[in-house]
Design goal:
By secondary structure, the chain is α+β, with helices and mostly antiparallel strands. The protein is built from 16 helices and 16 strands. Helix 13 links the parallel strand 12 and strand 13.
Length: 422
């Protein structure tokens, strides 16, 4: 009997795994400079956590969330996004009382049962940040700046930033009726999903990507006219903060994002390499979510970026395997040489050097081919003659030059060689 991975799930290995590790390392570096600390939340949470956070009428909860009843009859869900778990952890661990402002970043798997396509899987990976306990518009600007710097550092250039102001829940109540009055006479022209959204949650129509619906959406009343001075002033300061950092953005009055918890600032990063479904990253402010989870009123803002989609936006040069250069390979001929080679291998690794060895007793030619495949810069060759002389041959795979080095001084000599060609 043979087994295959489930549809929408993927094995990640080789250069792709290397690139995932690279962007995660860059995330830790960039986010750390902004004062964000890593948090790791569980993959499984109670189902109602996400229903409360995302909204029971959202597509994520209605169509995409993996949920089940466990052996203790508790309703469980696999996390479809990262924010709800971070907010739960913020309150459960009393960070709201001990820290006030908490700045977290996370990396990890998310799960949504949607139709698999390029860059969109049922198990996908996200990198995100959350600022909890601040209502400052400059926290919004800082969060967007953090995202932009991360994308630039990764090499994902040529992206576009779209920005909008959703106001508060109270302001959206009035806007909701206006939208209903606008879309109702045009119901027959809407797609089947949007016909259902008109009754369940009219705001979801604004998030529809159907070309037919987009033509109707762009003529609908913008939310800006329904916002009060406080919401407008907050948004103005966000824009001023971004302008002060030199970040360019485009205002999109019809962008709402797909989750119910957003208030005031929302933003989305799109990239031309992603085609029609061009969203690379997104986020915004969610000032009511902490309170809805039982905490005291507190502002919050964050973003999430899809790792698989990020990799699609990087230049080809960013996917080349270069990590193997300046590494060593130990090639041996004979049992005595093998034992000495293994001892040397262990000694070099203990010193922090990257060294490979083949244990399958291939010929020297076969071992050299394997070293070349693994892109090792140097090969340490040990045979009977070398053992008698207490030495080894160091072969440079780049220019075919080779020289003899004493085994007694191997560590110092190889460190020097590595440093000179780093």
């Amino acid at each position: 009997m043979s087994f295959q991975r489930l549809r929408g799930f993927k094995d990640i290995y080789g250069s792709e795994a290397d690139e995932c590790a690279r962007v995660e390392a860059l995330a830790r570096k960039v986010f750390g400079a902004f004062g964000f600390k890593e948090i790791r939340t569980p993959v499984l949470e109670t189902r109602d956590l996400f229903r409360r956070a995302l909204g029971s009428d959202t597509d994520v909860v209605q169509k995409e969330m993996y949920e089940f009843e466990d052996r203790s009859k508790e309703h469980i869900a696999m996390r479809p996004e990262g924010t709800a778990g971070v907010v739960r952890a913020y309150l459960e661990n009393n960070f709201d009382k001990t820290e006030g402002l908490s700045k977290f970043f996370y990396t990890g798997s998310m799960f949504r049962s949607e139709r698999p396509q390029a860059g969109r899987l049922r198990q996908f990976h996200q990198i995100g940040v959350e600022q909890l306990g601040t209502s400052s518009p400059y926290a919004d600007a800082e969060t967007i700046q953090c995202l932009v710097l991360f994308l630039d550092t990764c090499g994902a250039h040529d992206f576009e930033i779209k920005l909008n102001n959703l106001g508060t829940f109270e302001e959206r109540k009035v806007f909701k009726e206006t939208l209903k009055n606008y879309f109702k006479p045009r119901e027959k022209e809407l797609c089947d999903d949007c016909k259902s959204r008109l009754e369940r949650n009219v705001f979801r129509i604004l998030d529809c990507k159907s070309e037919l619906c987009r033509r109707i959406i762009i003529k609908s009343p913008p939310i800006h006219d329904f916002l009060n001075d406080e919401s407008k002033n907050h948004y103005r300061q966000v824009c001023e903060g971004l302008a002060g950092t030199g970040i360019r953005f485009k205002e999109d009055p019809y962008m709402i994002r797909g989750l119910d918890y957003y208030t005031k600032t929302v933003f989305e990063i799109s990239h031309p390499k992603l085609g029609a479904q061009d969203a690379l990253a997104a986020g915004g402010r969610y000032d009511s979510l902490i309170e809805s989870f039982g905490g005291a009123p507190a502002g919050a803002v964050g973003f999430a970026i899809g790792v698989e989609r990020l990799l699609m936006c990087l230049p080809e040069a960013g996917n080349e395997k270069t990590a193997g250069e300046n590494t060593f390979f130990v090639a041996t001929l004979g049992e005595t040489a093998f034992k000495e080679g293994f001892r040397l291998l262990s000694q070099l690794r203990a010193a922090g050097m990257k060294v490979l060895m083949d244990f399958s007793a291939r010929s020297l030619k076969g071992q050299l081919r394997f070293a070349d495949k693994e892109k090792c810069r140097y090969v340490i060759i040990l045979g009977d003659d070398e053992i008698k002389k207490n030495s080894f041959i160091l072969k440079d795979m780049k220019n075919s030059a080779q020289k003899e080095i004493a085994l007694s001084g191997a560590l110092e000599a190889l460190k020097k060689e590595e440093k000179e060609h780093a």
